[in-house]
Design brief:
With 373 residues, this protein is an all-alpha fold. It is built from 14 helices and no strands. The longest helix is centred in the middle third of the chain and has 29 residues. The N and C termini lie far apart (54 Å).
Length: 373
């Protein structure tokens, strides 16, 4: 039940209270902020009760309708930022947090890359401990969740390895892409990403074998059974195994390549956005963006898979997938507009050769597999 009338009643009561009983402060900036927040809240109330349901129903359809509306709000915010001048866009962030709008230096993760530093007698492994920051569990948790979204070991590993190659290729643009070799391949790919993907695949195996037979809470006689039923409310209502089959048809092959490309672009946007908008990595807006993608990414991937797997039933791309794609492109356009000098820094020639060779191999394999064989 959406409780549309109940939500409308309480919303009307809140607006009547603000209009008749509350004195409006004589502060233009404060009133502007409060008016924008109130407008967003009214839109969220409308969306939670009236928006179209997506493919997920647990823990409650209203939860996913809420994130759909948040997606719309975020895209509109990005469009607003895109249409500002670079200076005004960066200074506008001060309305969200007065500490923003100031250029911040990026941390360099390179430097001394010795895993064992004999010159440091007190702690020869200090380089390893220096890399053990908050991003280590974030990498693990991030790839655990991405695995639950993609539901395919090969695609996850390809995206993980490809992103490390992108960091190698773009370290001349962003200083924090400059990491030690063991930070790239041991700590990131093998330990953090690999362990996250492994745990994610184990969770997927459990979800695929779990029986999905639901019983009403009040029909369960024992308290233990009721608690277990409440906990299972946060698991899927039913399970769909993703079988991407990229080599089956040229359409699915190109679609899988597009999914990998958009995933990598969204990953890069995380670093480039905070660079061009002058947000420190630990700022809460960076964390909120990641939380946002955690909640909308799974729905988008399910809608993309349904659209690919059964186009006769799903005749158009899902609403959340459409919005996530639009957000990813808009974020990239903001990066291009706000700092074109960084984006246009020439890529070293040998790196260009490697990418050209990789693209040529993909193109050649595509021709051989779908048109020559």
């Amino acid at each position: 039940r959406a409780h549309a009338v109940t939500v409308l009643f309480f919303l009307t009561c809140a607006l009547v209270y603000v209009t008749l009983l509350e004195e409006t402060p004589q502060d233009t900036a404060y009133n502007t902020k409060r008016g924008i927040v109130a407008s967003i809240l009214v839109f969220l109330c409308f969306g939670v009760t009236q928006a179209k349901d997506g493919p997920f129903t647990r823990p409650h359809p209203a939860y996913w309708r809420f994130w759909l509306c948040v997606t719309v709000v975020y895209e509109l915010f990005l469009i607003f930022i895109l249409f500002q001048t670079v200076h005004d866009g960066r200074q506008f962030m001060k309305y969200i947090d007065p500490k923003l709008g100031v250029a911040l230096p990026e941390r360099d993760y390179g430097g001394n890359c010795l895993m064992y530093d004999p010159g440091n007698a007190t702690d020869p492994f200090h380089n390893i401990w220096d890399k053990m920051d908050g991003f280590v569990p974030a990498h693990f948790l991030g790839w655990y969740i991405k695995t639950l979204m993609i539901r395919d070991w090969w695609m996850c590993m390809i995206i993980s390895v490809m992103f490390e190659f992108l960091e190698y290729s773009l370290e001349h643009q962003l200083p924090n892409f400059s990491e030690c070799w063991w930070d790239h391949w041991i700590m990131d790919v093998l330990v953090c990403n690999g362990l996250g993907i492994y745990c994610g695949m184990k969770t997927l195996a459990w979800l695929s074998m779990k029986p999905y037979q639901w019983q009403g809470l009040w029909n369960i006689p024992t308290y233990k059974g009721k608690i277990k039923r409440i906990a299972f409310q946060f698991t899927p209502y039913s399970w769909v195994k993703f079988e991407w089959k990229p080599a089956s048809t040229v359409q699915r092959w190109l679609a899988v390549l597009g999914i990998i490309f958009m995933f990598l672009l969204a990953e890069l946007n995380t670093f480039y956005l905070k660079f061009v908008l002058w947000m420190p990595p630990e700022h809460y807006l960076v964390l909120l963006r990641l939380v946002f993608f955690v909640n909308v990414g799974g729905v988008a991937m399910r809608e993309i898979y349904d659209f690919m797997d059964d186009p006769k039933f799903h005749k158009k791309l899902g609403q959340q997938a459409w919005l996530v794609a639009a957000i990813t492109v808009t974020e990239f356009l903001i990066v291009v507009k706000y700092d074109p000098n960084t984006i246009m820094l020439p890529i070293p020639f040998f790196i260009m050769q490697c990418w050209f060779l990789g693209i040529l191999l993909i193109f050649t394999w595509t021709l051989w597999r779908f048109f020559i064989r």
